[in-house]
């Protein structure tokens, strides 16, 4: 082994200390050895193309150059995927495999202008087009004769879809729809790829025909000339400007001025406009919920990947970094030996496992409910909707906090883009807002919980994920506190039920004082969103614990031990975070709390020797991690210096600004 | 009034509703009408120069261009300040006035490469140089014959100053110091302006003379040729690369290879090396604490300014933005009417007031203690040190959370750089790490608190800010809960004392189990840092309340009412945030908590009509706010579109990447 490839001695030591088989854990996380193998093959296949290699790191480029690089890379990546599709005949699976994991973000670190073509444009055509429309448009889209995106959000309208202003007015004379943006706030705003990349777009607009508004419908709209890429007359399109992150996504705006499209361009699988302008209603509008829920379910899994990245970086760095001298005659310890550092990191490792198992569980439920839906059974849709809302909100918020905590745990070096932590935060925090703003989503779940509470009060049986409410509703008095994992989880259910109950009481009290239900709801909404969050915590804690019992059944004793230490850590951590809730709604005592503190501190000690092994097991290749602080070899300082030297500013010993400004300024001549 | 300058109707309405005189509040915050007038004059004077105006907003530039623009602007700004100094003979005051407020960050939005010359280089020369050294170097620095910075942190060494590796070895033969960076981790890393701007630098290095190490001392080192700006032989200097924010600061690295400087270049006010290499000790090393504490004290005030900016932007936007339709036949309400939104914003407004009064109080204490220091009295130094540590940690962490909460409260538009919220976060979150990492600082305060506890146990009287500990130590039993502001504040003191006491108990328990004190401390450090945070909360809450009583004594009844609503909101908010602590360490009951919830919700209702007035009173000019969402006129959507159109990508209808990559890709020819 040469000097250049040597692994940092501290990391070597850490890996020797690990008490379990790292490969076994990797296989466990992937879902079996064959899945690990498949993932690794896929990663190697993509990475050997070298698309991810940047001569000058993109953080040094101008905004415009960043976009141009993103287009180049996206084209090369999707060309590669298309080749596989042809070779392996895998259809959409190949896209999901690359875009769903961390692989896509490794290559297109700051987002891709082509993603929505595959993730929204094609799926919407398939989901909302008639068979004829699908045959024509999906073919053209798959063939890349056209590049599309999906435009819903407007400059003045986000979450509240009914409030969209863009109009599509049917003209029976020409059998066309006339698209208009009646105001500035009606401009489409945000769609990825819309600015300069897509030449087609699905536009959500208020449908008017025969003088009547029929609400929001989807239309296929050509934006740019297929040959020259020039925007068509009546189309105003451009980019919305620089953002906190994801500057490769080419988010755009779009306005219409009497822009006409053929009648056939309305997606008519559900509702139709006939040639004479007659509107024919949709059989069920609930069917369109599917895509939204799908994206939220997938997001929970994405959050795992981001947190896994961040905690791998911060843990390896903490094993390499030494600081201070608590004992006079001993060397500076690794910062990973400070309990405050362990407190910041180990919960991140446990969070990845908790989210992974919750995401898998939600995914299964989603598939079951979708199958039921197709058989015409809508019963479990509201439950799935409520779950996907709160899990999306809590997982994105927790992930953002985890990533920031990891970044701050790396001190100043975490602030460097070379750590890859700021970019990771940019992705994760965006997810707190898109696909439903988190507070709005928590309140959606709260509506479901309030209904469940009222059903419990009426003596009805509840759906599985809220059945704890009726149990607790029935036996109001708190049982003696049980200071175990199961006891804590039950405690969290008691907290959730208690908060829902209190919220309902407060709403009713305010109604009795003369408020409308809507105003009483609003006045209580801080408590309602907290109740919703508590419900979600109870779900995640119990799912993590229950699913781990099933999944880890056949694991080796060494691995099983560590896996359940993480479960314990996660549950005890959250108990300590929510000690106020537990004190209010359960019979936990001060002595129990002090025991929990001690338990927590002991768990940190137990997990300490396995910390690096645990993040190694996430098996994130250096090219995907893309971090000077987090590489497998731990050569942190060499890599930081190597990254610094890539800055174009370092290519010249003297920058021209010295002669232009600094010297004249110093000489009083500026 | 023309269409172009019209104020948004919602904002007009909000301003009409305001129940107090906005100017009175502005004067109150500034410290009197003359102070407001002076600030405004200063702002106008700087802004009329137009240095802040950017043809292409800097977010669209490349990293290198951003630096060049920052040098240009910094030179122009400091030239202006220098002119004032000459005109008005104000010395350093002019720098502080511009750099201390929001004004500097309005012009140099992403940091300045010249700041450390004024903030660290010159003050260190003044503080640590002999009279002769001051006469020579301060003159050259003020004259801008040289531009300096201050290099302490190294690639492998931050908080732990004793661990620095750079060496300065005295050679009595040539009467020179030889500077070396013995390892890669010894490279200086981070100093602002070091990369390509400064030609001189104060370097902190381990002093060796006559074969003995005497620890860290300061040396003046020339880095670059004064004429050509070329790095001198033996000097390796460059920039450290792109960061999350502050990309205009030109942070650099610096390595030495047998670089020689004259003996006179050691700053010798305190310690000396004689010509023959004899080391003469410093009379008191405590004196150097001064600068560090000064910066931390100033930081608390900076945090006010950033939070005030963020909450002004988010509040005005929330008054303009409408969303959803809770009541079927009514229009979409302003999002400011949602109680969950008020919950996110109003605490931010109160935080500005709480921090402002705490910062002023700390500033007075700092001045008193510094005066005592100069008279040789070091008694109150540890108390001030403990306070400055925890207040820096808590204020920066709270400010970062506040700014992010404001950003997320603006939904997707908050993610746009045009909102100015991401850049503001970049500044604030950096402060969580620099000038002492927050966890390290909390643990420094914890050391002081543990000592205080032990003194209380020994029956000693304690210094004022920890005197509550002896009071509570004496009467261990909790008095009946008093659900008032004063009662809550006392509750927080009880929490802090309780946590300190528990930490001490746990340390002692672990020592009895055989652990060393250092290990027992480490094992208890999560609890210790939380105790320290609780202490700081108690300080802020009581300072805010007590100082407001004094300061607001002569305010009009209308203003006084609102000011104390904010005090109430702040105290009740934190009581609800820390309900678990209160339940553990006081006799608060579930009924009290429910009353606090109701009280909190009522306060939101009371403050709602004054929300816009309260942020208007921060009186932050549009040019300083620099936000499409937050401008005084509330023309949010027009400004967002105007900002978008400044993107260079929008200058051409078709980007060249279409012809280079996209079209060939679509045609299968890439």
Furnish the topology, listing elements before pairings.
The structure is a homodimer of 670-residue chains.
Chain A: H1 9-17, H2 22-30, H3 33-47, H4 63-88, H5 93-100, H6 103-107, H7 115-128, H8 131-142, E1 148-151, E2 167-171, E3 176-180, E4 188-189, E5 200-209, E6 212-222, E7 235-239, E8 252-256, E9 259-262, E10 272-273, E11 279-280, H9 289-320, H10 339-374, H11 381-409, H12 411-414, H13 421-430, H14 438-457, H15 467-474, H16 485-512, H17 517-523, H18 525-551, H19 557-577, H20 579-585, H21 590-607, H22 611-616, H23 622-625, H24 636-645, H25 656-666
Parallel strand pairs in A: 1-5, 2-5
Antiparallel strand pairs in A: 2-3, 3-9, 4-8, 5-6, 7-8, 10-11
Helix pairs in contact in A: 2-3, 7-8, 9-10, 9-11, 9-13, 10-11, 10-18, 10-19, 10-21, 11-13, 11-14, 11-18, 14-15, 14-16, 14-18, 15-16, 16-17, 16-18, 16-19, 16-20, 18-19, 19-21
